[in-house]
């Protein structure tokens, strides 16, 4: 734990044989590194460690995750590094879905982060015009912290990673959503989720997020194209209220919150899930909309989209969530994701693949959003 005051590496070069021997509890003869996540690890450096050891308890291959220097301040501001470590510690052995086994995790403690929900609730009550000031101040504070984080987890060598740039066909989309549904069902409306300071509610920063969207909206509309300008204009006026209604209307569960193809690995009909830096609690349908909007090809028909949605709803299997309500919430979630992607312009996308992947996501999202009846969405929100 942090009280041991042990060394925590800040760069891939600092992940040494000696350090690994210490934290994994056995002698390591040699170790080599291979970077993973080309165009995927936006917030962190992801390394595959090939380990040589005569100790049978030491795994031969391990994934190491460290903050990425280029985006560390944003990652600190969002709390993604601490959140993923805490997720694995709290839920890693209890989920009904396959996730990596954790071998070691540590980070520098910070009393402020343990009050992040309280701080965010206070900030979210401030007038919208203060968003720029809040964002600038938060960035300065995050940059000054210099906290260190490291996570060592299982490498799924027997499974093939998904490719978000390529996307998935209908059958594969159904497979993934059937796979994540048991996690949503297990924590559906569970008070257990209230016991973790780092597991934030989706709407805790609704005003701040909406303010960030407004800052990017004009440039973002140009990037997205005219097809969704009416939707973006609608979100300018109703985005914050939509988020609050979306959360209020539906029981919360444990959300991956970054459920996209690059964060899924496959082996035949089995799949496993990785990268839990954005995990939150909120409506399960947010994960569904996030995944479909990023994975299902733009040319997929409305009927194929419906097929995927019904597969998930059936797999979820909860008694208090009618399909018609689920479908309404799915469309709400698509609009929230549409607004949420506006902030992607602030992230270093690492290389050409990252930029191409984001463009593909935008194209797929436009295809899913264009059929939404904004009048009915507004009516649903106002009646909530």
Tell me what the structure shows.
The protein has 384 residues and is α+β, with helices and mostly antiparallel strands. It folds into two domains: 2-154, Phosphorylase Kinase, domain 1, CATH 3.30.200; 160-382, Alpha-Beta Complex (Aminoglycoside 3'-phosphotransferase, Chain: A, domain 2), CATH 3.90.1200. The chain is 46% helix and 13% strand. It has helices at residues 17-24, 72-78, 80-91, 116-123, 131-145, 170-186, 206-224, 229-248, 285-295, 302-316, 323-340, 352-369, 374-382, and strands at residues 30-36, 44-52, 61-67, 102-107, 149-154, 160-161, 253-255, 264-267, 270-273, 280-282. It has a five-stranded antiparallel β-sheet, sandwiched between helices. The protein has a three-stranded antiparallel β-sheet with strand order 6-8-9, covered by helices on one side. The protein has a two-stranded antiparallel sheet with strand order 7-10. A hairpin with a 2-residue loop joins strand 8 (264-267) and strand 9. The longest helix has 20 residues, at 229-248. The mean pLDDT is 87.
Please give the structural blueprint.
Layout: H1 17-24, E1 30-36, E2 44-52, E3 61-67, H2 72-78, H3 80-91, E4 102-107, H4 116-123, H5 131-145, E5 149-154, E6 160-161, H6 170-186, H7 206-224, H8 229-248, E7 253-255, E8 264-267, E9 270-273, E10 280-282, H9 285-295, H10 302-316, H11 323-340, H12 352-369, H13 374-382
Antiparallel strand pairs: 1-2, 2-3, 3-5, 4-5, 6-8, 7-10, 8-9
Helix pairs in contact: 2-5, 6-10, 7-8, 8-11, 8-13, 9-11, 9-12, 11-12
